[in-house]
Write a structure and sequence with these properties.
alpha/beta, 5-stranded mixed β-sheet, Glutaredoxin, about 180 residues, about 40% helix, 6 helices, globular
Length: about 180
C-alpha cells in the first residue's frame, strides 16, 4: 500500500510540473551508468496520437529495457528519442527530418533505437535522473548503459541531427 501511495504522489507531482524548454540538468562530468532500468510498462507509442504509424521505417524499441538489450546485441550505442504526442516539434521531426533517407541510413548504421512517450514510466525516469524536460529530447547511451550525451529541440535538418549525434559519439557524420 505504501508503494502505491508513493507512486501516486510522485505521478501527481510530475504531472503538475511545467515542461520547460531548457536543460535543467546539464550532462554530468561523470556520465551516469544505467545498470538496471526498471520500467514496468513499455512506452506503447509505436502509434502517433492520431492513430497512424509515423515512423514505420526505423525500428524503435518501445521501452528502454528492450532498447538496451538490442544495443548490447548489436554492439551499437542506444539512441533514445523522447516525444510528446501533439508536440508540433516532435511531429515536424517525425514527418520531415526523420524521413530523410540519409538520416535513416545514418541511424541504422550507428544506433539501436528506443522511442519513449511523454508520461510513461521511462519518461519519468528520464525527467528525474537526466533532466529531460523538453520535447523532442535525444539521449545517447553506450551499449552498456553509460550516458554519453543528450540534446533537445527540433533538428532543422538530417545534417544537424547527424552533427549533434556525431559530436556525442566523437565520430564524423556521413556526408
Amino acid at each position: 500500500m505504501t508503494n502505491w501511495i508513493a507512486f501516486i504522489t510522485m505521478t501527481l507531482a510530475l504531472s503538475v510540473l511545467p515542461c520547460i524548454a531548457v536543460e535543467s540538468h546539464p550532462t554530468p562530468d561523470t556520465p551516469a551508468l544505467v545498470t538496471s532500468w526498471t520500467s514496468p510498462e513499455p512506452s506503447a507509442d509505436h502509434v502517433h496520437s492520431n492513430g497512424k504509424e509515423i515512423i514505420s521505417f526505423i525500428p524503435f524499441a518501445t521501452c528502454v529495457d528492450a532498447g538496451l538489450e538490442n544495443a548490447k546485441q548489436a554492439s551499437k550505442p542506444l539512441l533514445v528519442y523522447i516525444k510528446k504526442p501533439g508536440c508540433p516539434h516532435c511531429l515536424a521531426f517525425e514527418s520531415g527530418v526523420l524521413r530523410q533517407p540519409k538520416l535513416k541510413e545514418y541511424i541504422d548504421l550507428n544506433f539501436s533505437c528506443t522511442r519513449v512517450l511523454n508520461g510513461s514510466t521511462d519518461d519519468r525516469i528520464f525527467k528525474k535522473d537526466f533532466g529531460c524536460n523538453a520535447y523532442p529530447h535525444f539521449v545517447i547511451f553506450n551499449n552498456e548503459g553509460k550516458l554519453l550525451g543528450k540534446w533537445f529541440g527540433l533538428p532543422k535538418s538530417a545534417k544537424e541531427f547527424e552533427q549533434r549525434a556525431a559530436a556525442i559519439l566523437a565520430v564524423k557524420p556521413t556526408n
